[in-house]
Amino acid sequence: MTLVLEAAVLGILTGGVYALMASGLTLIFGVMRIINVGHGALVILGAYLSFVLWRNLSIDPFVSLVVTMPVMFVLGVILQVVFIRPLKTDREALSVLVTYSIALGIEGLLGYFFSSNYLQITAWYDTASFPIGDFRITYVYIYGFLLCLAILGAIFLMLYRTTFGGAIRATMLNRTAAQLVGIDVDRVSAIAFGIGMATAAAGGVVFGITNTFNPGSHYDLISRLLTIIVLGGLGSLRGAIIAALVMLVIEDITAVVISPVWASFVFFVILVAVLLVRPQGLFGLRVRERL
Amino acid sequence: MNRLRDKRVLMAVGLVAVLTLTLVLPAISPESATTNMAVFTLMYVGLATAWNIMGGYTGYISLGHAGFFGFGAYALGLLLARLSIAGGYAPFLFVPVAGLLTGLMAAGVGWFALRTRAATFVIVTIAFMFMLQLLAENLTSLTGGGAGLGFPNPPWRGDFFNIPFYYAMLALAVLGLAVSWSIRRSKFGLGLLAIRDDEDKALAVGVPARAFKLTAFVISATLVGMIGSVYGYYVTFIYPQFVVDPLIGISMVLMVFLGGLGTLWGPVLGAVILEPAQLWLAYNYGASRLYLVLYSAVFLLVILLMPRGIIPSVRDLIAERRASAPAARAGAAP
């Protein structure tokens, strides 16, 4: 029982990190109606950036976010302007191909510079732990969770308390109507993509401390993140956060009750089960989608 | 009228010429390096053509077809192992069985995946592919897991080794094209195009959308499964992450987009252009991870420069010429 409880607590803490990464992905979908298949690769890129700053300049990985988040934000804006904006026809399908190609390019570049050896960022808080009841929790999970909570809070504040956030929400609701009332949707899209990348950088740091990673790690990550945002309902931030927490708790419990090799499999089983009952996901609206 | 007949004759002659050329190609250039490239190019001609039946005609973008490819390969490998079939021509006889099994599996997958549309469908297919990869890795007693699954060794040696596989891939590519062509001309194909253009309207005018989509999905997956099974026998040893490879899944999609989505010959054209390029890049830069960067550059260039594909772009160009030619003549007349 202690094991299950421990797994549940750990699931919530790591779920917070997935919630942050998935919110970036679902935000990008909501604003642009594109699936960013490259999100996993950008998370891994974020992990590598922090790894380099930590290894070469001994900058604390969490502190390195001050550098990597703005860098990734700018990179996101550039990627959106260069590769996503020119797509006019068949946007949904072509954007998948474009973002997939970006993922391949990043994987190739990282492999070229760092080889495909597994790396991990280490810090004092990834081994130090404190006791809760019958088990101990490593500090990094708490710090990571708090960091993600803070960033998610900032995103929600921005979305619901600022004019620009209003513009983002308007674009998510109806792109054409937003354009008609004078919102520069191209600018909103570019910045939303940048925000998505910045969340990827933050998620990447925590991922890089709590997991070993190599350039190919993004496949596993993206399949989980995509499953989470479909379960939460595409374009729903709230849904993505809840789905991330629920999925990670279930995954971690499966790992201790059944076996770690089947943990990821639960993702797909739940995806199938939920889609049979609610094809639009937990919080998605049933919209008339067209390709 | 005359013009139409001329065009048909011309196309028939062209078709026969291309088919003859592909039939005798191994005789012209029997070196294994060339035939190896030809095997993979024909493989992608078949894959892209099969994908196009779902993605091009029906408009449902599946990124998970690599899952069917791998499933077909594992199906054949396991069949051959269980039935203790030795290497030779006999394994080719089981290719349709592997295809049939893949089709059955696709019917199950399609049954729930096709409850979703557009972006959700894309994601569900990606998830399905990774699920299959995970299954192949975890069901160690059945698939051999990460250690891989061996096929019986083909008995052919030297330059001849590739030839049986070349003709097997050619047969499957021709089969795929024949299926694609007959669907395009049928009422069923018309229904698929209607679903692509507006599924709700298609439903309203009486197209049995659910049955049609599922049928297209199963046909597409069956063809891909058969091609995957031949691939498995060709490489003789398969591993989960190399046979259920997302790169294979995305390559066939990109070829269709390059040639022309929803056209009969677009996938062929795309495969014939892209696959040799990919093989060349992998051969010359495969040692470093640089070939992935080059792939990605090629992919991005294709999408940004040719978003509508070669065949539709050329067709529009010709139509424009035709439309402007009489107008120019009329304008020139005083």
Task: Give a verbal description of the structure.
The complex is a heterodimer of chains A (291) and B (334). Chain A has 291 residues and is mainly α. Chain A has a single domain (2-277), classed as Orthogonal Bundle (ABC transporter involved in vitamin B12 uptake, BtuC). Chain A is built from 11 helices and 2 strands. In chain A, helix 2 packs parallel to helix 4 (91-114) and helix 5 packs antiparallel against helix 8 (185-210). The longest helix of chain A is centred in the first third of the chain and has 31 residues, at 2-32. Chain A is globular and about 60 Å long. The relative contact order of chain A is 0.20. By secondary structure, chain B is mostly helical. Chain B has a domain at 32-245. Helices cover 79% and strands 1% of the residues of chain B. Chain B has helices spanning 2-28, 32-58, 65-82, 90-93, 95-113, 118-138, 140-143, 162-185, 187-197, 199-204, 209-235, 240-243, 246-259, 266-285, 290-305, 310-332, and strands at 149-150, 237-238. In chain B, strands 1-2 form a two-stranded antiparallel ribbon. In chain B, helix 2 (32-58) runs parallel beside helix 8 and helix 3 (65-82) crosses helix 5 (95-113). Chain B is globular, with a radius of gyration of 21 Å. At the A-B interface, helix 4, helix 9 and helix 11 of A face helix 6, helix 13 and helix 15 of B.
Top keywords for this entry?
heterodimer, A: 291 residues, mainly alpha, ABC transporter involved in vitamin B12 uptake, BtuC, two-stranded antiparallel sheet, 11 helices, 2 strands, B: 334 residues, 16 helices, 79% helix, globular
List the helices and strands and how they pair.
The complex is a heterodimer of chains A (291) and B (334).
Chain A: H1 2-32, H2 39-57, H3 61-84, H4 91-114, E1 129-132, E2 135-138, H5 139-161, H6 163-173, H7 175-180, H8 185-210, H9 218-232, H10 237-257, H11 263-277
Antiparallel strand pairs in A: 1-2
Helix pairs in contact in A: 1-5, 1-6, 1-8, 1-9, 1-10, 2-3, 2-4, 2-8, 2-9, 3-8, 5-6, 5-8, 6-8, 9-10, 9-11, 10-11
Chain B: H1 2-28, H2 32-58, H3 65-82, H4 90-93, H5 95-113, H6 118-138, H7 140-143, E1 149-150, H8 162-185, H9 187-197, H10 199-204, H11 209-235, E2 237-238, H12 240-243, H13 246-259, H14 266-285, H15 290-305, H16 310-332
Antiparallel strand pairs in B: 1-2
Helix pairs in contact in B: 2-8, 2-11, 2-13, 2-14, 3-5, 3-6, 3-11, 5-11, 8-9, 8-11, 9-11, 13-14, 14-15
